[in-house]
Structures are given as structure tokens and as C-alpha cells.
Protein 1
Amino acid sequence: MIQVKQLQKEFRIHQSRAGLGGAFRDLFSREYKTVKAVDNLSFTVEEGEMFALIGENGAGKSTTIKMLTGILTPSSGDIVINGFVPFKEREDYVRSIGVVFGQRSQLWWDLSPLESFRLLKSVYKVDDTAGEKWLERLIEELDIGSFVSQPVRKLSLGQRMRCEVAASLIHKPRLLFLDEPTVGLDVLVKQKIREFLRNLNETEKMTILLTTHDVSDIEALCKRVLVMDKGKLIFDGLLSDLKEHWGNGTEVSFQMKKRTKASELRNVLGDMPCTIEQINDYSLRVQVPRSQEMLPFVLSTVMASFDVSDVKIMETSTEDIVRNIYRTDGEVASHA
Amino acid sequence: MQNAKHIYSIFADYLSQYFKTRLAYRADFLGDLASNLISELINLVFIIVVFQHVPLMGGWSRDEIIFIYGFFLVPYALFSIFFGFWDFNERYIIRGEMDRILTRPVHNLAQVCLESIAPDRIFGVISGLIIMGYAAIQLKLDFYWYDPIIFIVLSVSGALIYGGVYTAVSAISFFSDSRTGISPMIYNIQQYGRYPVDVYNKIIRFVLTYILPFAFVGVYPAAYFLRKETWYIYAAMTPVVAVIFFGIGLLVWNIGVSKYRGAGS
């Protein structure tokens, strides 16, 4: 459904010189620096997939999304989506996609969402009877019925965002792009939107692409994750593989009844490949690499040998993983 | 054709939405209506008073100049109804609203025009017609049955000439990353179009005919109704010039869109 091959986008950025003299010299000769915002990106997506594009600020996510939605023209490389080349056949192509920009509004500020929907329906030439039914379903599932007739400027962010999602789906697209859809929303609204999206993906087989900084979005919605850094794709695979690959394994923290030293614990565990960290006199943290029989063994051995008052098991969160990726990549870059 | 029909149906929708939003603020709407009417009226009186003191300009009588001015107001008003995106750079490029426009299945220029539509400028058409009527009576002009049709064609052409130039100038925003200071210049030059071209020197005449063809918005078409036969060819060329210049505007715009780099984030 989405095919992206060796996609590149370069921006020429004007470097302004310092000071008044510099500004004067800029008038006559300008210096430009070429920045590769997206560098040799290739991936394919099947119909009905739900996947996330993550990366730090400036990693090239937004530029990628803008090329995928046809807003920007790529410097080189190929994109074919739903059988269209987005930037060439823009007007036909955008009929088959929906776009939500978390930072920007689709709705007319002074109109009620319902009026905006009506206007969008004529923009997209939506069939009246089928469109009406679909809209009713959107209103019901997003639970926006109670405020859909108020002017947009009087809505709260959470209410508005749900209306934005409805607006982007008015023409029943096959592919939905969401660029940071949950920025600034409270947990309940986030959950509602996520549930709605999951349902949409299941019942309509809609393909959904998400960019986000909120790791819980990904965990709740996506199986597949693409990670970008400095314009390059550095990971493309399942979320579980991402955890395997970049995760720290499992952390177990023990609270002892008596003073216990790390070396004592080490003696009991023998040459198990795990690291032991002393937090204070009574508590210790053991880091176990991801492996299925390792964890029960560590637990039972420690419990049998010491008086344990409390145990906490912590799975590495996706958030940590993302942080790990960014950190290691930073190191790679600094070596280069 | 399909496309044009679609744009037309959306135009009707946008227009009705425009009135809906305007009518939502009733006091505001009535106030605007009144102030528009008053300012047009003052304009009207002012023009007639000012031109009382201008007897002859390079072979054109006072009433003829008033007629030209009246004619000019009509395409100019049509133009300003549809091409009100003077804040294009700020609103669509810097704030990135263009992103949204580009994800909708209607030609992007049509969308930008419709979003900044200003139907209240229609008053300009009315005062133009009044001024022309006044001058026509003074000049005892005769009209044929087909003159209204010619008038509509010439007015629409004039509006398209302005529209083309304006579109091309606005499209510069796509290429440069700073604000453009070109719009005010264009506005100054377009003022020349209202007066007979032969009062200006040859260079200005050349510029206003071939480079920025604003003479086709005022003098040339008005000359047809004033039965100045020397200018008939120019008047007849007006629709052609309109097609060419609007085409150029559209072309520059489309190239601009492909160079669009979006706002950050």
C-alpha cells in the first residue's frame, strides 16, 4: 500500500553572517548550507497495518510525513501510495488519505464542527446518504455528539481533537496519518482516541500511521515501529523486537530484612550473567537479561537464601528503550 | 470541466458559510455593512468633486476620465472579492496553513481564494456602476443590446489580469523565506491603470500594456464604451491578455507549490 524507496529530502538553509556588516554582505552573496532532512529512507507498508514513526525532534519525522501526504516534493527517491505518486497526483491522492496534524486545526474556528464537516463533505464530494451514516458513526464512536454544534473556539482541546479526528475521516480514507495526535491531551481523551483508532483499524482495515513522542500511544496501538534519527531509518520492525534489541532486560529490586551486601548476593547467584547493584544497606537491584528461565531462577534462589521483605519487578519500558536508542546513537555520531 | 464544477459548488458552500459566520455576530455585520456603504459614498462624492477641477487630460475630457475610473472600480472590486489573501505569506507560509490546504482535493489556489473571500467588496461594483452611469449621462453615451455582455466579459478579464499578477507576486512567498516587499509596489503601479494611458509617457505606457498590463483593467476596455476607435483593438485584446496573465500567475503559483518547504514542526 505504501512503498517508499530511497527517499531523500534536502533543504538549502541560508546561513546569515553575524552583525550588521554580515547582514550587509548577505545582501550580495549568500551562503547556503544543505541539510539532509531525510536520508535514503526505504520501507513498505501493507494494507491494514498500524505503525508508528518515532524519533527525536528534528529526526525527520515531520518531513517524512509531509512527503508521504504530498505536501512536500522529495529531492529524490520514489513514493507510491494507494497507487498514486503523492506530490504529482495530489488532488486525486488526497481523496484516499486522512491527515491529522496535532498542532494545526482542520476545522473552521468560527463554525461548529458539524458545519465544518458539512463543508468538508462537499470538498471531498462525499455521497450524501452513505456519508451521513458514516458521520453518525464517527460522532457516536468518538462521543462528540454533545458539543458538535458549538463553535470550535468554545471547545476544550480534548473535545476539539476528537472533532479533528472525525474531520479527517469524513471521506472514509483508506490511510490515516496522525502527526502527534495526543499532544497535550489528558489520559481519558487519549484513551478514547486510541480505542477509536484501534476499532477503526479492526473493522475498516484502515491503515494508520502515527508519529508521536508519547510512548504509551505506541504501546497501545502499534505492532510495528520505525525509528528515525538524523534523517535515517535506524530501526524498522516489531515493537517486541525493539524491546529485545535495545531493552535492558528485566530489573528486580529486593528489599531485605537484614543488611545485605552485593557480594553476598553474587555468591548465591554464582556466575549468572546478571549485574547486581547496591542501592543502600537493605536494598539491592539485580538486572537480568531478557531470557525466560533466568528470572524465575534468580527469584527463587534469592528468596530461598535471604529474608526478603519486598520484591519489585520492572520491565524496561518503551520509553527507556527510546532513550537508549537516542543515547547510543549520539555516541556513534560523536565517534564519527 | 468536472473540476470547475466542483470548485463552483464549493464556492457556493463557502459563501453561505461566510454569511453564516458573519450573521452570527449581528451587530458586527450591520456595522460593517453601514461603514462599507458610507465609505463608498464618500469615495463617490470625493471623485466627482476632485474631477470637477480636472478639465482635460491629454485629449480626454473630464467625464471620460470619470467613466474610466468608474469602469476600473468594477473589475477591481471583482478582483478584491476573490483575491483577498494579502496576508498569504504570514498566514499560509509562516504559520503553515498551506499544509492543510495541500491535503485537500481541490486546487490549492482555489482553496486559498475561497478561504479569504470578501463578498462585501461587491459594493465597489455598485459604486463603479453609479459613477459610470453618471458619466454616461453627462457624455450622452449610447449603448447597444450586447454591450452589457461585453461589459461583463471585459470586467471579468480585468479582474483576472489583476488576479494573475497578484497570484504570481504572492507565489514569491514560496521561494523566499522572508517577507516580500513587492505587494505595495504593485499596488502603487496599479493606480496608474485608472487614468488614460496616453497622458503618461511612452515608457509607462509600454509597461502598463505589456509588462504589468493594468491598462487593460481601466483605459482600454473603457475606451470601447467611450467609442474611441483607436483603442478598439486593445479593448478586444483584453480577454486574451487576461488568459495569458492569469495563466502565467497560475504557472508561477504551481511552481511555487512544488518548492513549498512547509513550516517547522
Note: Residues 46-244 of chain A form a domain with the Rossmann fold fold (CATH 3.40.50.300).
Protein 2
Amino acid sequence: MEMTERHVMGLIEMLYKMADDQLIIGHRNSEWTGLGPILEEDIAFSSMAQDKIGQSLALYELLHELGEQDPDTVAFTRNAEQFHCCQLVEAPIGEFDFSIVRQYLFDQAEALRFEMLITSVYEPLAMVSRKFRGEIKYHVMHGKTWIEQLSKGNEESHDRMQQALNAVWPLALGMFEEGDYEKEIAEVHIFAGEKALQARWMETVVPFLSSCGLEIPAHSDAVLGGRKGKHSPELQPLLDEMCEVFRIDPSAEW
Amino acid sequence: MKIKSLDPRIERAQLDSDSQEGMNSPMDQFQTYEVFEQKKRGTHHIHVGSVHAPNAELASVFAKEQYTRRGQCVNLWVVPTAAIYATAYEDADIFETTPSKYHRDPESYKVMDRIQAFKQKQNA
Amino acid sequence: MYGSAYIDPNTQFEGYLAPGEDPALLAEFEARIAAGDKIEPRDWMPALYRKQLIRMIEQHAHSEIIGALPEGTWITRAPGFRRKLALMAKVQDEVGHAQLLYNAAETLGKSREDMINDLLTGKSKYSNVFNYPAMTWADSAVIAWLIDAAAIVNQLANSKGSYGPYSRALDRICAEESFHLKYGHDNVVFLATGTPKQRQMVQEALTRWWEPIMHFFGPPDNVSQHTEVLMRWKVKMDTNDNMRQMFLNMYVPKIWDLGLSLPDPDLRKNEETGKWEYTEPNWETFKQVINGHGPCNAERLAVRRMAEEKGRWVRRAILKENTPYAIPLS
């Protein structure tokens, strides 16, 4: 099937939401730098944050090739309503339980998403997906190791993990909010779509979390809106931080 | 007194400068694991340092970013420090005469002179 | 990054052999060091050597972990992908250095937890320079360039020291610091050669940081018997003044080269002596800051306390009781 303008618009929409997710969670995870629960973990979180921001850069570069503005402009000058990230990635790091549950649920979805994209007909995206594979595999390994150990640690840590899961779950479901071009990007085999991804993700995370003795929150509604520019109040302050230095002198090269 | 910080993370945390929280007990000490990295297939694993961790799985997750975040690596070992039996430096003399054991050294087998001499004698 | 270990001039020096220590072992120990050999963790060593090294490596480790805070402040605000990724990696390295250094100090018999407790109670110090705030993005650039440069002068000297684990850690650290220095220089150059606003930012930051930088290597050493022994044992590798001279010699020309000025009208190189002349920084301020009265002392320790406190449930949950603790091998 031939690519039409609508297909390209679908591709652009998808790349934006993926890149925005990574950019924002990368910034949030960077907040552990210097504050981690164990020195070694502090280092691990920083690496994952760097990987995410690096991955977002690669995706913004693809967008630039598709005619969007350059990565620095796109990443560091938009306002909240122009962002397409899901609300899961927006909150500050909070406690380690929240951070680690978010990190695992997010990265497990990333791992599956990029695995699906390796066969995308949009070759530049298939290429970066192959490149990210190893990095994301480590992120998943990191998340799973921690979740398993803390869920099976002691009573306090188990309770904390369960509560964090209850809080994060509806936000995590928001990752799979559908875009306006799901049909288009699926029919030309750019990406099989959010529904397909969510199904795979459920098949992966539910058995794992259960094996850790955690209960999946029942009757949980996804927190939607992020993909359409509707965000939690926590996003804009972060974007203000991200733009702060640029705004001192917009004509300058930093 | 509430701390006023330039750091947005610290501002959000609303820290109190008079708080005396935070002290650890000696019980909080994890085990240590020694880390060995292999840079390329076919080469030896080399000791690069240690990490603190409660078990091997986390030790491995930690070691990966602490010791291999630059450069090439294909394989990583973590070994509980307590499992390593080391010789004592005061016993270093057990190795002392080793370098002078020429009978183990290929360099000490030089027969070309003898062969040359033998050939000359044959031809004479 | 790190300055000289602060040796309190009022420390009483009680001879370099503790009661009961064998002079023959000392002679062997000193001969090994004189021959350029390294001392390893399980070797015999004088109690004074062990004590000084623990203090020095521990202060160095604390400086790295506290040093991650002023620059960490700027990570989310770093302008653009290139600067952001570099700053993240740089601050991560500082935490990584703390990890390496705590391990090295641990080989001498003090646990990481004890060291961190001593940091939190103020019993053990860290480099004074981190008690100052990084007010603007330009401050983070000046720190990355000049504080790291000063740290390299110090660390390169110390990496030639006699204690094996510390030397090995420093070799790795120096290799990583050279990236910090390059990144910092690049950042300062962009500001100094940029728009008038950028130049103004970097000049102001430099002016703010000059005194802390001059303080960095510590007050002039009084050549006590104590210092002399530490230098013979290759614990202290050079005098504070010598290292300050090396730093000035390498970096003042580079700063002037960018058309930036330093807030010391008397700063100049005496071509006859080859030495730099400068106005002594106020050492009273230095002491005040060490003793807890700098602009950020309270914040730095409060943040460390928070990190320990917030991490406690995590550590407790995964800690296995009755596992044997062994001192890291090397």
C-alpha cells in the first residue's frame, strides 16, 4: 500500500509521543543523581536516564528528517499542551517504590514496542529500534530485579510495592492511549498499534507481577489525555526548568 | 529551619536543616562482590573493583553501570569477596625464585650454535 | 574532584610509631615505599599511616558524593541535548568516584556506613568548595572546568602515592576527570565567546568562584614533622602551595586567553622566579566554612541525610541477615 499524507501524519504523531515519553522520563529519572538509596543504584539510574534522553534525541532526529524543527528546539521550547507524553512519565521521582514500579512498567512497554518496531516498514525507525534493544533490555532487567527483590523483601517493602503498583497502574495504562491514526499506521505496517502493544504488555507484566506476590489492581481506568496534550500539573514546572537557561538568551548558542 | 535551595528537587523536598535523621546502623552494611570484566571474547576476565550488594543479581546490575559504562565489555562476573581465597603478601617469597627457573623458559634453549658447529664439523 | 585533605594544624603529632609497633616492620615498610613499591591492604602498616589514609580517602569520597549536588542542580536545566547528556554523565562519574573511593577506604578497615555516618555528624569533612552554591548555569561550567582541573592536579599527584587501592582508584578517576575537564572547558569557551549576556554570566561566575578555587588546595603547609613523615610515606605527595602554583600556571593563562578577568589585581607570574604571585585568599573564611558556616553546609548535609533516610527501607528490605561481610579485596 502506498504511503499517503495521513500515513506520514500518523508516523509523526507516533514518533512525537515516543520521543516525548522518553525525554520526560529521562529527566525525571535523572533526579536520582546524588540521591539514590545505594551509591551503586544512583549510578544505574543515571545511566538509564542518559539512555532515555539519548533515545529521545534519536527519535527527534527522525522527526527532523521528516520536516519537523531541530531536536533542541522541539525538546526544549514547547509548552505542556504541545507535548504528547503520557501522564505516567510526568511526576517527579517521589519515593523509590514509585520510581521503580514506574521504571519497570514503562520500560517493559518500551521493550515490547521497539521489538515490534524492528519490523516496521519505516526503515529508519526499524534501525534505531535495533540499536536501542540492548539498552532497554538492561532497563527491564534492572526493573525486574528490583521489583522481585522488594516485593519479596520484608513486609514493609511488599506493602510499599503493592501501594506503588496501585498508584502507578492507571497511569501506566495511559501509555496505550490511541492516537488519531492507529488504522493508518497499522495498515501500512509502520506499527501494529497501541491495542496490540497493550495486549502483549499485559501478557508479560501480569504473570511477572503475580509471581512477585503483587496483585494487579482491578477495575482500574486508564489515565488518558497525555497523547492529546492534556497533562498533570507536574509537567509544566519541569518544562520550565528545561527551558530556563535557553530563555536567558534565546539567540545564544549554549 | 526550612532550607531554601537552588535545586528544584531539594525545594520540593522541603528539608529541615535541624533534622537529625539519616544515621545508619552498622547492620546496614551489605556484602561486597568483586567484579571481573571481559572486554572481548577470547580474552581473560580482569578484576576491576567491587560493589556493595545484598546478592549476586543486584551485584551484577550494579557492576554493569559502575564498571562498564565506558568502553567495550562482553561478559561480567561478580563473586562474593568472602569466597576469594588469596595468598598473603608476606608469603610472596613463595614466588620469588620463579623468574630464575630457566629450565622452564623457552629462551634458555638455544641450540642453533651447536647445530651450526655440528654442520661445520660434518662439512670439514 | 577534590582538594587536599585538610590537616588540622593543631593536630598533635605523637611520633610515627604507636606503642607496641615493631621498628623492624617499619623499616621494611619504609624501604618498600622508598623503592617505589605499593602497600596493599593486608600488608603491615603503621597505625598512623592507616589513620591518615582513611581520613584522606574518606574525605575524598565524601567530596565526590557531596560534589554531585551543586552540579546535579543543573541537570534538568542544562540547555540542549549535548550539554545535558554530558553533564549527566559527568555528575554520574562523581558518584561513581565516591563508590570507588569508599571501597578503597574500606580496605583499610572502616565500613562505608561508618564513613557516611561520620559525614552526617560532621565528624568527617569534605572539600570546602562544595559548600558554595552553583547560582547559574555558568557556575556549573566554571566548576566543571576549573574545580575539576584543580582536582586533577591533586589527584594525579596522589595517584603516585604509596597505597595500592587508592592509586588504582585514582588512575581510573583521573581518566574520567579528563572528560570532565574537556567538557567544562568547552562549556566555558562557548559562554565566553558567545553573546554579551553569556559572557557576563561566565565572568560573574568566575569572580564568585575565584576565592573558593584559591582555597581549594588548602592553606600553606607548615612544614611540621607530621607533614614530613606523611610525605616520606607517600600519603601526602606535594605541598599545598606547590599544587596551587601548578594549577595557576596551567589555567590562569587559559582564562586570560578568553578575555576573562580574575578578581585579584596582584595576580601575575614573576618571570624571574617562575612563581605566581597573588593576594592570599582569606584563610579565616576558609576555616569558617570548614567549621560549618559556609553558604551551603547545612543544605549539603541535610540532602545527604534525606537520601540516607529515604533509602533506608530499600536497604533494609534487601539486606540478608547474617551474611558475612568481607572487606573488599583491593
Note: The CA atoms of residues 107 and 328 of chain C lie 6 Å apart.
